[in-house]
Fold Protein HflK.
Amino acid sequence: MPWESNGGGGGRNSGGPWGQTPGGGPRRPGNTPNLEDILNRGRDRFQGGFQGGVPGGRWAIIGGILALLAFWGLNAIYTINPQEVGVELRFGQPKDELSNPGLHFLLWPIETVERVTITENQTIIGSGNAAGSRAANREGLMLSGDQNIVDVRFSILWVVANPADYLFNVRDPEAMVRAAGESAMREIVGRRPAQDAFRDDRAGIQIEVQEITQAILDSYQIGVRINGVRLENAAPPSEVADAFNEVQRAEQDEDRLQEEARQYANTLLGDARGQAAQLREAAAAYTNRVVQEATGEAGRFNAVFAEYVNAPAVTRKRLFLETMEEVLGNSEKVLVENGAGGSGVVPYLPLPELRSRATTTSTTTSTTNGSGN
């Protein structure tokens, strides 16, 4: 055998390389044991370590195999919770089908499973995200379109739409959602005045941020769907909050005074328009009355003229009588007839004054009688 030539004496040693015969004889002084002796002694020790010799070793082997099978079964059988889905990997390559909630089996170790939570997640971005951290407190500070600084706090609601893309396309999907949402919010706030974020168009900002964030995530194929964006708070930084509030109050006072001025102007304008309409109506009524009277007078004149043409003498007398009736109807008149003696009247007798006194006396008497009753 090869080791027979390694005795150190050029073939003079008939034993093995360790100074012992291949048959297991005693080791000669100064020589090492041969390989066969070492293998025999190892086999004897292995068999002697179990009670009963070889049968005990067989049960130990069976027990070891059963333990290995149990360990393999624990890794080959897995459970998916109701809020999760599983992505099975074969040699590191994800399968197309997903594992729904329940008990499943795979060929471990060539197949493994990755679990993904499919419930809705919320990522909060802004000053209230991490109290005590200066970087987190500055996270929501953004520059608006009118060169104002706005401290924005908002949240992004998202779910996993494609578990395989979510697991393997991006190293940290949640950080990617945060970065995309913050970038979209800064873009929208930077294009709008600060008042839009404060109160004027918060809903419009939320919609635009959601659309831009979803477009960014789709470009990276992250497998995430944005369900909504909520703008929870938008305020000026604490360092300038007092000055900003003063500006807001001044703007509110300006709006209030302008509204009061508009109301006063509308009141005056309404009154003026009412008076103008009243004057126009009065003028129209006067015009109509004058026209109607003139038309009536012209018709009456035409009728009288027609009668005058037919009977001039009668018509002249009638016009005279009517004119005298109209003149004397509203004047004081005293009729004096000659008496039986024919003496006539006193040259001056204030008959109208006497009549006025008589009328006053009768009025006073009537009033006194009415009071006494």
Observations:
- The chain has four domains: 2-49, 56-119, 121-235, 240-293.
- The first strand starts at residue 77 and ends at 80.
- The chain has a mean pLDDT of 75.
